[in-house]
Amino acid sequence: MARVRTGVRVVGAVLAAVLGASLAGCSSTGGKRAEDRARAAAEQGRPAVSTPRWTFAMVTHAGDGDTFWDIVQKGAKEAAAKDNINFVYAHDDQAQQQAQFVQNAIDQKVQGLIVSLAKPEALKDVVAKAVKAGIPVITVNSGSAQSAQYGALTHIGQDETVAGEAVGTELTKRGRKKAVCVLHEQGNVGHEQRCAGAKKTFGGTMENLYVEGTNMPSVQAALQAKLQSDPSIDAVLTLGAPFAPTAVKAKEAAGSKAEIDTFDLNPAVARSLKDGTLGFAVDQQPYLQGYEAVDLLWLYRYNADVLGGGRPVLTGPQIVTGADAAKLTEYIERGTR
User: Fold this and answer.
1) Counting beta carbons within 10 angstroms of the beta carbon of residue 185, is it exposed (0 to 12), middle (13 to 18) or buried (19 or more)?
2) What are phi and psi of 60, to 5 degrees?
3) What are phi and psi of 316, to 5 degrees?
4) Cystine design at 284: which of 14, 150, 174, 316 (Cβ 3.0–4.6 Å)?
5) β-strand 281-283 against 259-263: which pairing, if any?
6) What is the mean pLDDT of each run of 10 residues along the chain (337 residues)?
7) 103: which residues sit within 8 A by CB, 6+ positions away?
8) Measured between alpha carbons, how far is 111 from 116 in angstroms, rounded to an integer?
């Protein structure tokens, strides 16, 4: 099934223009004090901070309709509103186009750059150009191993290998014996690390299943066929929240009794955790990734602050069960977890 990419093309066409324009302010966060301060500033017609109106660009490998990145953006936009930042976002799941968006940001002389490195080699040269041009760079979500090497100030996200290891340990605790790790984006180093980490600590056997993540019917068909061919599979791990419901459908169609587990949260995953349709989810706090990326760039420009001490600033993993999801429902429903 062909994928409609009109939204991404539009983003690419208008990026240069948007970079020079101010975005409408978003609601402030960062605790009640920050909210009150920002609200008072807005009422008085002045910014919440005294720093200039800098422009920060974020360029990610997100595909169209990926709810995970909606949450990342929400955090980034709310930090930007608090910090008087003009925030610009562009994305593409094709590394070549992602690199072009980074080049566009360099050409527009942004004051800060946030980049995800799902396919690091494809971004290596253009990130080096940004650093050489004096633009501070923070990597987010993917590429922790390459972040410092490429000249970034720090990396914000979870260590994908550690996250995978947490999954393997959890599956073992649950008595699972045979698992399938469903990779929906071939070439994504973070996905490979998750599955490898899970396999390392899992007491049973685990194999990878590569699927075409842009085609959900194809994903369901591939997983259904796998489950039908091997009834001994008792666990399925998906690497993104949008794929969990599809895995559930594949399980039901195959007549399988496998537990479905997933990375990341969204309202549908939270409901499925609470009703037992899903076993557990791995939360890496995407809102925090976006919020901290903008905030740390602002702190660097304002006060030359750097966090992490040369190591990634970790936002996960956290294993979320049905009981945990109930406690987080308010935040999940408003799109911040």
Assistant:
1) buried
2) -125, 170
3) -170, 180
4) 316
5) parallel
6) 42 48 41 57 63 97 90 97 96 96 98 97 97 98 94 96 98 98 94 97 98 96 98 98 97 98 95 97 97 97 94 96 93 92
7) 126, 129
8) 17
| Alpha-carbon dihedral angle through residues 177, 191, 9, 219, given to the nearest 10 degrees | -20
Backbone CA torsion sign across 136, 147, 198, 207: positive
H, E, C per residue of the chain: CCCCCHHHHHHHHHHHHHHCCCCCCCCCCCCHHHHHHHHHHHHCCCCCCCCCCCEEEEEECCCCCCHHHHHHHHHHHHHHHHCCCEEEEEECCCHHHHHHHHHHHHHCCCCEEEECCCCHHHHHHHHHHHHHCCCCEEEECCCHHHHCCCCCCCEEECCHHHHHHHHHHHHHHCCCCEEEEEECCCCCHHHHHHHHHHHHHCCCEEEEEECCCCCHHHHHHHHHHHHHHCCCCCEEEECCHHHHHHHHHHHHHHCCCCEEEEECCCHHHHHHHHHCCCCCEEECCHHHHHHHHHHHHHHHHHHCCCCCCCCCEECCCEEECHHHHHHHHHHHHCCCC
Q: ∠ CA(154), CA(62), CA(52), 5° rounding?
A: 50
Distances from the Cα of 124 to the Cαs of 64, 98, 237, 246, 315, in angstroms?
24, 12, 30, 34, 24
Q: Which two tokens stand for residue 243?
A: 């794929």
